[in-house]
Amino acid sequence: MSAEVSARVLSGTELSKETKNDLRQQTALLAERFNGFKPRLVIIQVGDRNDSNVYIKQKIKSADEVGVDATHVQYPNTITQNVLLSEINKYNNDPSVHGIIVQMPLDCIQKIDSHLITNTVSPEKDVDGLNIINEGKVAIGDLTGLIPCTPNGVIQLIKRSGIEIAGTKAVVLGRSKIVGAPVASLLLWHNATVTICHSRTKDIEKEVAKADILVVAIGKAEFVHGSWIKPGAVVIDCGINSLPDSSKKSGYRLVGDVHYESASQIASAITPVPGGVGPMTVAMLLSNTIQAATKVVENIYRSQWNLSVLPLKFQKPVPNDINIARSQEPKDIMQLANEIGLKKSEVFLYGNKKAKISISVINRLKDINNGKYIVVTGITPTSFGEGKSTTTVGLVQALAAHTKKNTFACLRQPSQGPTFGIKGGAAGGGYSQVIPMEEFNLHLTGDIHAVTAANNLMAAQIDARMFHEATQKDQALYDRLVPTIKGVRQFSPIQINRLKKLGIDKTDPSSLTAEEISSFARLNIDPDTISWNRVMDTNDRFLRKITIGQSPTEKNHTRETCFDISVASEIMAILALAKDAKNLKERLSNIVVAQDRKGNDVTADDLGMTGAMAVLLKDAIDPTLMQTLEGTPVLVHAGPFANIAHGASSILADLLASKLVGPDGYVVTEAGFGSDIGMEKFFNIKCRYSGLVPNAIVLVCTIRALRMHGGGAISPSKSVTPEENEEALRKGVANLKKHVSNGVKYGVPIVVAINAMNTDTENEWAIVKDASLQAGAMDAIVSTHWENGGLGAIKLAEAVIKASQLPNKFKFLYDLNMPLQLKIETIAKEMYGAKSVEFNEKILNKLSNYESKGYGKLPVCMAKTAVSLSGNPNLKGVPTDFTLPIMDIYVSAGAGFIVAIAGEISKMPGLSTRPSIYDIDLNIETGEIVGLF
Question: What is its EC number (predicted)?
């Protein structure tokens, strides 16, 4: 470098240090604001070029200096284009990655299109700025995106010179897509008059001489001489070339595209080589990474959804449900997903009206505080139901569409058994429904079928295993269980689990003794203890008891068994209670299907079933996104039988929704049946496993049901006087008071929702309001959501918001350390009002046995009729002085609870004389389903 330099040296090294200091402050602020958040950059390299290795080390070092987590991913030079594209897309879809660069040039022996590679990097993560979308934005003057790094560094260095870009004449030598073309665009949009010169430009020296700002990126060593340069011009040299130099230890020296010694005598400012544009390129790369990460995290933490609401088209009188549902065109489900902050890679479309949502969202949003958690329950219902689902949907429409709160409804998937049997649908009703209601009520995304398949595969394996053990000797059985395949014999991972359970510390199949072989190969299931039944999602009373194994091929290995309805399967309860895929597999592995002849439990893991069932449930673990009539989001997931299991939608749906709504949002979920069954299990089972703390209870009641509990008629065809109705209501509110008192015991604020019907009177509403407040409810609101959608539930929404902001005093009903018998008695006495609980000797022995096996600290799932607080379905109102008989008890070890059956409870409903089947049909001309309400 000449000692007579007159130009000011524009040091990229110094400016990059200042820039990185600013970037370091930005990352520190991000970490402070967003719970330790850290931007992440992935650098992809193909091959092992030395110069690329040097550049990558510099980038990683600089990234560490500013607080960016940089990961270097290196692929062999044999990688193919398709594999490389697939790997890039993996990082495109990884929400933890905010910036991606592909180090160029690619060092590979395969033919790979480098332009295709750079264009495959997601524009939002393309921190090199080389994707055609980012380049195109620069070309049209949109400088809000990720600007190519070297061109952006050039602009920063020009600004550093002190020259005002606007109004100057700028000349750019070189038109490459990486430097020349985008630099010219940036200068243009900074209001310079720009000329681009290239290899075909005539009289290039004369063009250079016009430049107030000269940017050289032509790739020729010392191409521009000082004699070409306009006196006082700013010169930015983007070139880096090596020339032989014997005086250097390396044998070469680095020079730019400008002859520095001569140019520095004429220019007012000039960048050195090295130490000019190069350091700024790295600084701009990190700036882009932090910009991309900031956009992501601010989008995650944004407080308000940009939700487009669907207006309702009200009609009087209110049409039937399916006509209302069909009159509303749902939003494209991808639009809804975008509105609530989901990424494309997290949404798996099933058509354009429903989609599976990846549970990976929970991990992406793990630092987000949960929203308010509201549970909707009810009083003891009539045979018509009291509208919990309708109230849930109406409430969330009011919260999301009318009070502008981020709000999710989390609902169970309805079983096809009741749909075709007695109910006809379960998507809500009137102007408070989930749409498309036909898809909601039928196959949806196949989760119930997946549960059915997993359950029945287990049942098939149980009987097949018993058959093979009965028809083979130890060695033959062992040889088939652990076969030699292509000369190799080894245990599968799940068989290793069984060896460990048996205390056999061996992994070589040939090393087991005869005794160990017998112990490993024989489960010795006692057929009288098998508790695992086959299932199907149809009401079929004739499957309540069957005999299997009657084919001659089964060699007289027959036994009595039965079918349950699919939603009564323990696998459905497991799906609803799992917190992630790992927890799902753990729960599946723990399922107890029988005892062996020594009384030891036989589990799904013993049968080798865990992995196979998990595979069948691979897609079912993700909740399904749908929408209400007003276009607000709904998660539909799992549907455990509400009296034989815990009767609530999944923990995963609630966790996912809680993160998506954010700390100022609301998740409204439903508990099956009344407070005595659904709410009790929701709190004592579901909340225990989810860790979510409820903020408020919405207790749904109807005047119709309360009249019934007071001895009044519920049939619309029966004529009664207003005085008779009111007299029955005053007696019947005792049932409501009992349910309110049940909620009070958990320390959670209660809002009573009076689901209004056209047969109600204002005086009756007043009676119910007074009774609710006397019993301890925070408020009681008449809600007309069935008739008016979200508008009719605004007052209910306001009451729920107020209740959820009260101090939380939630407590469980019982301690898990209590004996199982005492837990059952506590539930029966506190929730149902029983005087005592009756246990026969067989039940007491089973309880003692379960406690000896380590199940004593599990919560209890009470199976009881839903139509009475007692175990007798004929007792209405508030029965007292009754004894609750426990008829049976068994362990659902995978689900994680003990089931106590009180009264006659069937796990396989039957079809009535006139089921809904008669009303359900397919219009073959339009393809529409008719008859679902």
Answer: 1.5.1.5, 3.5.4.9, 6.3.4.3
